[in-house]
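Exercise 7. Predict the joint structure of the components listed below.
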Amino acid sequence: DAGVIQSPRHEVTEMGQEVTLRCKPISGHDYLFWYRQTMMRGLELLIYFNNNVPIDDSGMPEDRFSAKMPNASFSTLKIQPSEPRDSAVYFCASSPIGGTEAFFGQGTRLTVV
Amino acid sequence: GENVEQHPSTLSVQEGDSAVIKCTYSDSASNYFPWYKQELGKRPQLIIDIRSNVGEKKDQRIAVTLNKTAKHFSLHITETQPEDSAVYFCAASWVGQFYFGTGTSLTVIP
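Solution:
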């Protein structure tokens, strides 16, 4: 397996634009996590899914953020409209079952100007 | 949700010395405690983990201890080397939730 795959690796967008980040988890993994990493706040859990169902989205900062997992092999994190303070590295991770290692993707570095 | 606190935020040690990073958690239901290492510009990667039914685990120069009663766990790196320089994250997990500490930037001085 190629591991968790995220796209794009880098995204630069203008304030107010819609941004969509994509993630392909490791095949067979039941859990998928979205994290945001900044220097100030470290790794923040935004939302996680179990078997494609969102379980806890309490970490999603605002209604501008939304996440979907239409099937077991694909998830998106959307920001609409984007703001400069959304600039961060966004990681997707997956794990096979609860309470086991989470495998991270390479991350998407988002810059909103 | 779970609240994981990690200290110190930065740590500098001389090569060959030991490094200790400490974490506390709030949710007594948490039963899985991994440690991740993140090198600059890279993804976090698991280096060692421990479950709540174990008090200590060791893998070569790295060891982790867990005190479930006090809700704290620690990472110990012995005989540090320059390649140990990175950011280290602790995490606490139960079922699906997976919460990280704020990270410790470790610098090993040659």
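Discussion. The interface with chain A takes residues 1, 31-32, 34, 43-46, 49, 51, 89, 91, 93-103 of chain B (CB under 8 Å).
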